[in-house]
Amino acid sequence: MTETERVTVDPVFEAAYEAAQKSLREGGIPIGAALARGGEVIASGHNERVQNGDPIAHGEMSALRVAGRQKSYRDMTLYTTLAPCAMCTGTIIQFKIPRVVVGEAETFPGEFDLLRSRGVEVVVLNDDRCVDMMRTFQNEHPELWAEDIAE
Ligand SMILES: [Zn+2]
């Protein structure tokens, strides 16, 4: 899908994308996420492995941490620029987040089968900006990328 084919701009997804860009500017891994309820952003965050030396701080985990304690996630959507890994998928299942919107799954397949098997709705946007952002990063920093996905 090309940029011109993108019919609507989702402000929540843009918050996730902006968080990824912020991480990139900081020298970190460019993966961002945002948690939303009814189209309203509750929190956003980005991968902080490099910035904080925190291996668990994937974009999704950081956004959930920023959101703080929530009584329920059942009316929420988690947005992420890249398909969620096994750790983040486990957290999505554990917190019973019913819907995940993903920027792209071309550069990393994630755990869609596991998410869907647990009843989580997965929407993939095929956003070219996210693919370009990750391809560039993976080419320029293969060691950081391998570290983040434990390869
Ligand atoms: Zn993850």
Automatic annotation (TrEMBL):
Q: What Enzyme Commission number(s) appear in the record? A: 3.5.4.1, 3.5.4.21
Q: What PANTHER family does the entry give?
A: CYTOSINE DEAMINASE, CYTOSINE DEAMINASE FAMILY MEMBER
Query: What superkingdom does the record give?
Result: Bacteria
Residues forming the CMP/dCMP-type deaminase domain are: 7-122
Q: Does the keyword Metal-binding apply?
A: yes
Q: Which PROSITE patterns match?
A: CYT_DCMP_DEAMINASES_1, CYT_DCMP_DEAMINASES_2
InterPro entries in UniProt: APOBEC/CMP_deaminase_Zn-bd (IPR016192), CMP_dCMP_dom (IPR002125), Cytidine_deaminase-like (IPR016193)
| One Gene Ontology MF term | cytosine deaminase activity
Q: Name one Pfam family in it.
A: dCMP_cyt_deam_1
Which organism's genome codes for this protein? Pseudarthrobacter siccitolerans
Q: What is this protein's name? A: Creatinine deaminase
Is Metal-binding tagged as a keyword?
Answer: yes
Keywords (alphabetical) are: Hydrolase, Metal-binding, Zinc
What enzyme category does the UniProt record give? hydrolase
